[in-house]
C-alpha cells in the first residue's frame, strides 16, 4: 500500500489468455507455515527518489486453499506518514501452481515483461525462468518446489477511507519459503515507485483473530465466507437480525467481498458485514439491522484487527 501518486480506476480483474493454466497439474506442497491464522511481521520499503522510507508491516492469513490456488488475509502498516492510526487492508492472493494460476498475471496492468522482470528479482525463481518465458510455466511441476510463488492484491481499506493518501491499485509479487516461512515481495503499480520490497518473517504465532468457538472458511459466489457464531449480540439484537434474515439465533456468516462484490464495503469499509449461510443476497434490511446492532469498536474486534 504505497503512497498514492496518481489516482487510477480499479483495473479489470478479468484474466487475459496469458493466465490460462493447466488444470492437470498437482497443487503446491502443504505447509503449516502457510495456513489460516499464521502471522508474519516485517517491513515494506517505500523509498522514492526524494527519500528513503520503510514501514513496519504485519500480515495475517485468514484463509488458504492450496487446491484452488487461493488465499486471503489482512495487512497492517504501522508507521505510515500522515496516518493517525495503523492502516489495515484486506487482500486476496493467487497461488502460482500452474494448475489455477501461472506466472503470467494477465491483468492489473501487468504485461508478461513486467511479470518476468519482477519474478526475476527472486533468486529462487531463476531456475524456472526458461520455462516461464516459454509458456508462463504451465508445464512446470511445482508440487515439490521448496518455494511458493503468489500474487497478493489488496481489495479495500478496512479501517480508513480511500482518501487516506495511500493506494491499493497495484499488487505484490510474492515468494514464500516453505522451510522457514519467510516472505519476500515486490509491489507493482505503474504509478508508484518501482520494486518496493516487502520482507516478512513468520512470528510462529497462529491466531485465527476470532474470539468465537468455531469458524469455517470457504469460497462461494466469488466471495470469502467465514461462518461464525456471535455471542456478543444480546438477545434483542439477535432476535432482530434473525427476523431480518429468517435465520435462527446464534449463527451468521461474516462475508468479505472480493473486487466484483465490494460496492457495499466501499461505502463503509470499516463495517463488518454478516450474511446468513443459505442466502448469498440478503435484503437491505439485513445490512441496516446489522450496522445498527454492532458498535464500531466491536466491528474491529470481530475482524481481529483491534
From TrEMBL:
It holds the Pfam family Vac_ImportDeg. GO terms for cellular component: GID complex; vacuole. It comes from the Eukaryota. Residues 9-24 have a biased composition (Polar residues). GO terms for biological process: negative regulation of gluconeogenesis; proteasome-mediated ubiquitin-dependent protein catabolic process; protein catabolic process in the vacuole; protein targeting to vacuole. Residues 1-30 are annotated as: Disordered. InterPro entries: GID4/10-like. Belongs to the GID4/VID24 family. This is Glucose-induced degradation protein 4 homolog. It comes from Paspalum notatum var. saurae.
